[in-house]
Design a protein that fits this description.
Number of helices: 1
Number of strands: 5
Shape: elongated
Distance between the termini: 82 Å
CATH architecture of the largest domain: Roll
CATH class of the largest domain: Mainly Beta
Order of helices and strands: HEEEEE
Radius of gyration: 31 Å
Number of domains: 2
Largest sheet: 5 strands, antiparallel
Helix content: 25-40%
Strand order of the largest sheet: 4-3-2-1-5
CATH topology of the largest domain: SH3 type barrels
Length: 130
């Protein structure tokens, strides 16, 4: 085999090798691009299954600031920062330490320290996530 034929054969084999690399790279890119779509479908299926179970609902961490909390739901928000408006016009920011049908215990920042405020149901006009 002559040297020019050998060089020509090597060039052709490199071209074929380069073309195969391009095709392989293209397939890899398609797989990488499709992966999030497949994962999103799996996530949506899981969420749908979870939310269809009895008693499943959004947790406090999934609800945004400003969300108004019904009195009956306050016990689900123990340990969560809230803003509470009272009938005297006061606004207290703190964490719910305890909540029941009659009152909430709010640990609020006050004058560089903390105060535990016991607020009766009739005193509270509004409670929302802070």
């Amino acid at each position: 085999m002559a040297l020019p034929d050998l060089i020509e054969g090597v060039g052709a084999s490199r071209a074929v090798e380069g073309s195969m690399r391009s095709r392989l790279l293209g397939c890899c890119i398609l797989l990488v691009a499709a992966a999030p779509l497949l994962a999103a479908d799996e996530d949506e299926i899981w969420i749908e299954r979870y939310m269809s179970q009895p008693g499943a609902s959004a947790q406090p961490g999934e609800i945004r600031r400003g969300y108004r909390i019904a009195w009956t739901d306050l016990r689900r928000f123990v340990g969560v920062p809230v803003k509470v408006s009272t009938d005297t016009g006061g606004v207290h920011r703190g964490r719910i330490e305890h909540a029941d049908d009659q009152a909430i215990l709010l640990r609020a920042r006050l004058h560089g320290g903390y105060a535990d405020l016991l607020l009766r149901r009739e005193q509270v006009l509004n409670a929302e996530l802070d």
